[in-house]
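Students often ask what a holo structure prediction actually looks like on paper. The answer is less mysterious than it sounds. You provide the chain, you provide the ligand, and the output is a string of discrete structure tokens encoding the 3D arrangement of the protein together with uracil.
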Amino acid sequence: MSCTRCALAGGRTTVVFGMGNPEADLMFVGEGPGAEEDAQGLPFVGKSGKLLDRLILEEMGLTREQCYIANTVLCRPPNNRDPLPEELAACRPYLDAKLDLIDPKVVVSLGRFATQALLESSEGITRLRGHTYPFRRGVLVPTFHPAAVLRGGAEPMAQMRADLVRAKKALGS
Ligand code: URA
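The corresponding structure tokens follow.
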């Protein structure tokens, strides 16, 4: 893929489209590729991704191949800054197309940025998480970004685990 819809195209190595089961009931949406993801062309393959894989398995009994994992933007923002509004807007049709095709029962948004983008909210993640929101034909369960959990220690880790249990219940499994 060789998208040039926004300026992020100039700094990327690889477009990170997403990965997993296109028929999954569960979809994760993160912010945007980091250095490792940009190099490999796959989402959440660095340290954050390792934690995500572990928590999905421990709390939901699922592997990443059984879910779908995507980001709000396909290309790495320089120095991992937040995507700019115009970058988010340029990339949104790709995310919407994935949401249309996969049609997940449950979306778990990872972190403030993805959660605000999907819920069209300006509330902080601490207030937004802990609840389940109607979203498209299913629900959205916000949680912390795994990078924030890696920095934050036991409390956000316990809350992220609780959010994944909430998502599992929403899946009806
Ligand atoms: N952080 C994200 O938000 N997405 C990735 O794919 C990797 C790290």
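The two ends are 35 Å apart (CA to CA).
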